Every structure is written in structure tokens, then in C-alpha cells.
Amino acid sequence: MSRRLTCLLVLVLGLGLGASAEAETRRYALLVGANEGAPEEVPLRYAVRDAERFADALRAVGGVPPENLVLLDQPDARSVERVLADLHDRIRSANDKHGDDDALLLFFYSGHADPTALHLGRTLLDFDKLKGWMEQSPARTQVLVVDACRSGGVTRVKGAKPAPAFRIEAMESGGGEGLAIITSSAAGEDALESERLKGSFFTHHFVAGLLGPADSSRDGRVTLTEAYRYAYVETLRTTTKAATVQHPTYSFKLKGHTDLVMARIGDNLGERGVLTVDAPGAYVFFRGDEDGELVAEATIEADAQLVLDAGTYLVRRRTSDGVYEASVRVPESGTTTLSAFSMKAVPAGRVVRKGMVRDEGAAWSLHAGFQLSSEVLPGTGAFAVGAFGTQVDLDALSFQLRARYGQSGNQNDSLELDQQVLGGELAALKLFDFGEVSPGFGLRLGADWLRQSFRTPGAAPDRNGVVLRGGAVLHTSWAASRWAGVFAELSAEANLLQTAGADKNSWEARLVPQGMVGLMVYLP
Q1: Cα–Cα distance between 253 and 181 in angstroms, integer?
Q2: How far apart are CA 201 and CA 182, in angstroms?
Q3: Which residues pair with 479 in a beta bridge?
Q4: What is the largest distance, in Å, between two alpha-carbon atoms of the chain?
Q5: How many other C-beta atoms are found inside a 10 Å radius of the C-beta of residue 494?
Q6: How far apart, in whole angstroms, are the C-alpha atoms of residue 368 and residue 370?
């Protein structure tokens, strides 16, 4: 049996079924974020942030009024117990006033833990004691959320000190309707947090699901089954290529209920709005533009709704045939629709360079263009060259490999010259993306075979030589669509020309400017 601590996200939610029951249930929540654990534990970055996001979701769609929600940042164990005792008193008073116990108490914790206790700085809150506090609550339904985590590298391993595995079993608590338990990972697995998401994978997806994407029935309500199914699939998908694959699990026993409504979409929006998405796909939502905060990452079915703060968002959609973007304004207390037809396709090269699809490492394109080169030797005239090749875009650099062929002629009163050039070139470019335009710079190396034929009144033998080239290049491209675009380049290359004479070989050096325009087509 593995001795690694099972890292949990334990969720117990009983938010009622019918609309009338939801309206009458009084809801209370205590959310705790603790980045600092025991002195020997590496501080977390996003435990507090996870608690804040969960709290925002409860206020937005979970029916918890602000006056009934307490958010604690790095408290000690005694402070947590004091707040729980205060919430018990408030719930008891409300029960007496209304003559029932139709209340819900939710507790959420994100931070370090060991098999027996939460690590709140240098203090410990025993699991059995915490469960005892929840079981003693005068609320009919209790909610217990524990997200125990520790950090690693860019993708941080979330968990606690290696120790014998433990489990929290579903049971009926005194005075409650039962417990439903969801864990972020199976026994023996680590949970993960993401630098890109700025939070834990499971909490991010669970919260995102509550805000609308998990509503597979499209009835404006997210049930426990829908939320768990959504979070399970998304957590498994996003951790497949991480250090540990997570398999969220659940166990619940709820007396008198067949399913639990966890969130309602579109009610009491306040400063938020609802975005309806008409096409399925994997979506990412950035506040403002792509340099703004990543607000949500969600897999969305057609005609799904998502609750967002009012404002402007850059929405990015990924499907099997590409990546698409659009800017959308979410109105306060209103609804707007994002149509797939309004989204522009993102060129394949930019998709890779921006890292929009993590499992897509390269984008290949074919290039064909017309190149004009100044004279290699004085008096020999400019070259008109046709070039054909390929470009591969990686996240850091782009590389070009091309072949080129051209010919030119020049004449004066005593000499007529024909020239042919056949060669190849390799370039490394650093490109930057600004909308549909991608400027950049780089270095190019090349080699050509040069043949010169003379027609004169006297004897002038043909000359053959090798030209070695190298220099700087400026590049810019404009993507007209997902698959095609145009490009232009300017370069200044040092040419070293070898010529074969009658009795000796000679080398001549010259700086040769060049310009090129062409078309590019991305390969599927």
C-alpha cells in the first residue's frame, strides 16, 4: 500500500432540489486559505486564491449571501474554531426565528495537511475535531471541503507529507440530511496545482463547472452529479501530461434526496452577466486581452451558459480543426451570446508560438516566393530568383529551409553575360505576434552554385563558382486565414564568391542586399 498521503478535495453539498427549497435554505460558509504550513513545508502560492475563487462562486451562483460568508487568510486553528462557534450561534438563532433547521453550513480549506490534521501555520486542526464541529452544527446540511496541498515546480505537487493513507467516510451526521463526499484524487495519488491556472486543477474545474459549463441538462441548475462529472473529466484531461494523473472520486449518502442542486445560473447576477456560447469546444477566457488574467478554462457544449464578471473578455476556442478567437463584452445583469461565426481563426504558427495548444509542438508551412538580389560582382547585374521551401514554427524559434534558382543577363558594347544560380539556405528567426501580423528577425546561411556564360568578340570561357552567404534578415508575415498568408523579407548578406580561372582559383567578398516577397500555406 502506498504511504503517500492521499490529497483530498472533500466536498459535501446539500443545496436542495426544487426552486422553492433553494430559496428557503439559509446558507452559511467559512472558507480558509493557508499558503503557509509547518515550518519545514514549502509555502504554497495559490491556496488562498483557491479559497477566494470558491467564495466568489458561492456568492455568484451558490446562494450564499455576503453577510453569511467568512473568508480567512492564513488563520491559526483557534481562530477557525472561534468562527465556527460563531456561525453555529448565528444558525441556531435563525433556526429559532424561522421555526426550522433548513440551513446549510459549508466549510472549505485549502492548504497543507497530514493524515490527521490541517496545518495552519504552526498550529494544527485535527480532522476528527473538525468533523465534530461540523456534526454539531445546527444546520440540517453540512458542507466540508478540504483541499490539502503542497508545492513543487512550475506544476506544483499538491499534497502533504508522505504518511499512511487515510480516508474520510460518508456518514449521517447528527441533525443532518447526510454527507456527499468528492475527493480531488484517488488514494495514493497527488493532487496538482497549475502555474498557468494560478490554482489547483480540480478546484479550478469544479468552480468553473459551477459557473455554468457543468449544466449538461441546460435547465439553469448545476447538480452535484453534473459538477462532479464535469470536474472529473476536466481534471483527468488536464493532468494527463502532468507529473501525476488525478482521478477524482466521490461517496455520498443523502437521506431523502436523489440529487443535489449546487448552483443556479442567471439569478441575482448583480455586477455579473451571463455569456451564452453557441458552439462546443475547449474555451479559455482572458480578462481584457491575452495578457490579462486567465479567468476560466472550460470545455463547453453547444448553447452553454457561463457566469462572468461584467466586462470585456478575449475568448479563445479550440476544436479539432484549429483555434479561434473573439473579443466579447459581458453586460452587467444581462446576457450576451458568443457565436462561432464571430470568432476568427488563429494562424497555426501563432498557435504554436503562443503556446495556445500544449500538445501541439510545431507548425509546418510551405513557402514560395520571388527574391531580388543585387549584383554579386560589379557589373554583372541583379538576380531575379525564385525560392521554394518550408518553415517550421516552434514555441521559441522558427526555422526556414529553402531551395532557390534564378537567372539573369547583362550586356554592354563588348560583352553579353548570362548568369544562373542554384542553391539553398537555412534561416533561424525569432518572430513576434501582433494580431494577424508577425514581424521578426534572424540569421541566414546559404550556399549557391553560380555559372556565368560570356558572349564577346574575343574568347571568354564560361566561369563556375561557389558562393557562400551569411547575414541578418528582417521578416514580417500577414496571416490572411488559418491556412494561408503572405510574407516579406529584407536581408543583408556577406557573399564570398569562388571563381575558377584559367590557372588559379580566387575568392571575392561583397555585401549583397536582398529582398523577397512570397506566399505561405500551413500544412494540416
Answers
A1: 9
A2: 14
A3: 485
A4: 120
A5: 13
A6: 7
Domain 19-266: top CATH class: alpha beta
Query: Which has more confidence, 260 or 270?
Result: 270
Q: How far apart are alpha carbons 15 and 19 in whole angstroms?
A: 10
Strands ordered across the beta sheet of 344-345: 294-300, 281-287, 311-319, 322-330, 344-345
Q: What is the pLDDT of residue 116?
A: 78
Neighbouring residues of 316: CB distance < 8 A, sequence distance ≥ 6: 283, 284, 285, 286, 290, 323, 324, 325, 346, 356
pTM metric for this prediction: 0.73
Query: Which residues on adjacent β-strands are paired with residue 103?
Result: 26
Which 8-state DSSP code applies to residue 167?
-
| 479 contacts: CB under 8 Å, gap ≥ 6 | 347, 349, 350, 436, 438, 485
The CA dihedral of 412, 416, 422, 426, to the nearest 10 degrees, is -10
Residues 6+ apart with CB under 8 A from 459: none
Give CA torsion, residues 279, 280, 285, 290, to 10 deg. Answer: -80
Contact 195, 155 (CB under 8 A): yes
- Residue 273, burial from CB neighbour count under 10 angstroms (0-12, 13-18, 19+): buried
Give domain limits for the chain: 19-266, 269-345, 363-522
- Read off the pLDDT of residues 375-400 as tens digits, 9 standing for 90 and up: 766 666 677 899 999 999 998 899 99
- CB 145 within 8 Å of CB 111: no
The CATH number fitting domain 363-522, selected from 2.170.8.10, 2.40.160.20, 3.40.220.10, 2.130.10.10: 2.40.160.20
